[in-house]
Amino acid sequence: MLTQNLGYPRIGSQRQLKKACEQYWAGNISLKELNATARKIREENWQLQVDAGMALIPCNDFSFYDQVLDMSMLLGAIPSRYAPVLSQNKNNHETDLYFAMARGYQKDGLDIKAMEMTKWFDTNYHYIVPEFTAKQEFRIFSEKLFGEFNAAQQFCGDAAKPVLIGPASYLLLGKEKEVGFERIDLIKKLVPVYVEIINRLKTLGAKWVQLDEPCLVLDLSAKEKEALVYTHQAIANRVSGIKILVATYFGALQDNTPLAVNLPVAALHIDLVRAPEQLDEMLKQLPDRLQLSLGVIDGRNIWKNDYEKSLALINKAVAAIGAERVLIAPSCSLLHVPCDLELETELDYGTKNWLAFARQKLGELKDLAAIFEGDTALLAANKQSIEARRNSTQIHKPAVKERAAALTAQDAERLHTFAIRREVQRERFNLPLFPTTTIGSFPQTDDIRKLRATFKKGELSLNAYEKAIEEATIAAIRWQEDVGLDVLVHGEFERNDMVEYFGERLDGFLFTKNGWVQSYGSRCVKPPVIYGDVSRPRDMTVRWTTFAAAQTERHMKGMLTGPVTILQWSFVRDDQPRETTTNQIALAIRDEVVALEQAGIGIIQIDEPAIREGLPLRKADWPQYLDWAVKAFRISASGVQDDTQIHTHMCYSEFNDIIAHIAAMDADVITIETSRSQMDLLEAFAGFKYPNEIGPGVYDIHSPRIPTTQEMVDLLQKAAQLLPAQNLWVNPDCGLKTRKWPETKAALENMIAAAQTARQLIEVEA
Predict the structure, then answer these.
(1) Three-state SS across 190-235?
(2) Can you name the residues that pair with 561 across neighbouring β-strands?
(3) Is 439 labeled as ligand-binding?
(4) Which of 109, 243, 357, 400 has the lowest CB atom count within 10 Å?
(5) What is the pTM of this model?
(6) How far apart are CA 581 and CA 571, in angstroms?
(7) Is-contact 541 561, C-beta < 8 A?
(8) Angstrom distance (rounded) from CA 144 to CA 187
């Protein structure tokens, strides 16, 4: 029985890739130095997998920014607007074109917007959305794949397994940029390029190729199913002498099982962590020629594997089809978990013994193979760890469980409807048409990060630390007053991350020092671990929000992270329903909202960017999730009086299918990402006649590009055609933590000027 891996974290155990990319973007290192860092990370990853005995080791799973963008480069699916990046500056390299597509490009007399970005299925990873036209052509453009495979062979030999996103999934992950065609219709143009790619890999010595087709766990149309069948039949007809493994993950195949098992490929991978129930049906339908890869190690969470549960699945498969046809693997790429638990030197032994990061998950695969061959000592040690966690008194808090169990429908209701609240709030706040604000955070400069790190190391006193944070907060407030923002924020200089900060102040969470995972590009997050029942022992934000409010006569917004986002962006306990954990978090946030109100804060934002992200991949499962997710938000927001204005924020979300549930959240103001989509998302709100107030993001904070005032005016005019102008706010599309101060100030000054111009235009039109 063979072990294999589907993908490995590419950021490096010390976030080397993040640091190198940011230095390259700043012009501080050369392309040669950037590539040297990348090469070292890849080689270390391959060696770890060789040492763990993996029979198949992924290559081309490394990316400087995003694997979907890598595919667009490989396939030559490069929007025409980026052509000048190379043609107008002969010193630019393919890598510069690549980063321009991801981040935008604003130099050499060019001003090119970045490509759209959205969430990778139901994860917190973001990918760059491919753009397609009706006459789209594909060709091999980038040589990265082939160079990395040659390098991988030096470490892994025949175990080196190139990984590509499958043709159908690649098209379905993209977006049509003109009307009159469906992107899946491009499949017959695309497949010949895949055939050419795979044949080149075979010539270079590849024995296996992994084609990721995660779309197989989605609801697919008849045309999309036909495209999948056509794809793999066409490849089988034109490629020989190399084995194709189709990888599915993040859910069950369900009605797509007959399609998947009849694809003319050598092996099929299924996710038995998210969907263990699918194994029985799979074994009934599996043809004799097909090998089956069992995803039994959780590629998306950090809990130690329960070997007894995994072995039950493995033994069932082996009994049905024989060990020679079974591979064992993580459920999906290990991209979504941190690199190495051994770096966590400050975790106590008992807690650390509950966990497994990417490197340890490779070890778990090795253990399972050994246990299958008869190593009972490994199984006994694992059982002891699993039982220790299950029975730990650190996890279970009866008072917390009882409070959550006692929730009623009334706990999720504001005192009056939005129509009544709006009049009270307008009288209290007296804001102009198109009121301006930001989403919350301001740039976290190197000085701020160094200050926080020095304090955490005990090298700076609490008094000195707080004085420095106060000075940064006051400076941000004065600047906001000077440029004329209507609703201010305190800047969040005391916060490390929008989830981690709250987790550190809630019971039931534990934290790592090096548990970084990639969110997008060079943006890495360090998710907290929810290990037990969650409660709020003390105030979390009141001190800093009230300090900021005391520094200004303008309205100051309190900033909180919502319960679903805290759940989604943490590593969540797997021993109780997610709904139960979310309600516990919602009650903790509710207590903080009430405390802010009692301290005199009248505008409170509860960010929920992950509501859409948490949506199940199958529509049949949506109602149950949306019911408890919306209820959790309402529980967190409903303890206040009518004149307290509740805001929420969501980003990179397609709202059309869930707009009624977004409205049911009943936030007084919602801010959303719309800049990269050119306000397209607003059409869902307009069609629904969304009744509450809304702030469509007018510029993209995920790019260093500075938008002009006129382009933001154009976006506001488009928004005013779709929704009542008196309901519109003006804001960036997300927080500004990752940006630099010069670009932030320039962009916000243009944004405020755009709001002022829009006020004049709307008044003239009225």
Answers:
(1) HHHHHHHHHHHHHHHCCCEEEEECHHHHCCCCHHHHHHHHHHHHHH
(2) 607
(3) yes
(4) 109
(5) 0.89
(6) 12
(7) no
(8) 23
- The encoded tokens of residue 227 equal 């495209």
pLDDT at 764: 47
Quote the CA–CA distance of 634 and 665 in Å, as a whole number: 6
Sequence-distant (6+) residues with CB within 8 A of 695 are: 437, 669, 670, 671, 672, 728, 729, 730, 731
DSSP 3-state assignment of 518?
strand
**Residue 339 labelled as part of a binding site:** no
Query: Could you tell me the fold of the domain covering 2-79+115-390?
Result: TIM Barrel (3.20.20)
Domain 2-79+115-390 identical in fold to domain 418-765: yes
The reply to whether 157 sits in an annotated binding site is no
Per DSSP bridges, beta strands 507-510 and 529-535 are antiparallel
Q: Amino acid letter at 551?
A: Q
Give the mean pLDDT of 673-677.
66
Residues 681 and 658: their CA atoms lie apart, in Å, by 12
Per-domain boundaries in the chain = 2-79+115-390, 418-765
State how far Cα 457 lies from the chain centre.
29
CA 619, CA 617: separation in Å to the nearest integer? 7
Q: Is 692 exposed, middle or buried (0-12, 13-18, 19+ CB in 10 A)?
A: buried
Number of helical (H) and strand (E) elements in the chain, helices listed first: 28, 22
Measured between its terminal Cα atoms, the distance across the chain in Å is 73
DSSP 380-428: HHHHHHHHHHHT-TTT--HHHHHHHHT--GGGG--SS-HHHHHHHHHHH
**Is 470 marked as binding a ligand?**
no
Fold annotation for 418-765: TIM Barrel (3.20.20)
**What's the rounded Cα separation, in Å, for the pair 656 and 79?**
26
* Contact between 656 and 684 (Cβ < 8 Å): yes
Instruction: Give the per-residue pLDDT at 74.
Output: 98
| Both structure tokens of 183 | 């992107």
304 labelled ligand-binding: no
Q: What is the pLDDT of residues 617-653, one digit of tens each?
A: 999 999 999 999 999 999 999 999 999 999 999 875 5
What is the bridge-based pairing of β-strands 208-212 and 243-247?
A: parallel
Please determine, for residue 680, whether its predicted confidence score (pLDDT) is greater than 90: no
Q: Do 606 and 648 contact (CB within 8 A), yes or no?
A: yes
Question: Across-strand partners of 162?
Answer: 59
Residue 766 has pLDDT above 50, yes or no: no
Instruction: Give catalytic status of residue 702 as yes or no.
Output: yes
The average confidence (pLDDT) of the chain is: 94
Residue 124 is assigned to a ligand binding site: yes
Instruction: Report CA 625 to chain centroid distance, whole Å.
Output: 18
628 is in an annotated binding site: no
3-state secondary structure 117-178: EEECCCCCCEEECCEECCCCCCCCCCCHHHHHHHHHHHHHHHHEEEEEECHHHHHHCCEECC
DSSP string, 319-380: HHH-GGGEEEEESS-GGGS-S-GGG-TTS-HHHHTTB--HHHHHHHHHHHHHHHTT-HHHHH
Q: Please check if 649 is assigned to a binding site.
A: yes
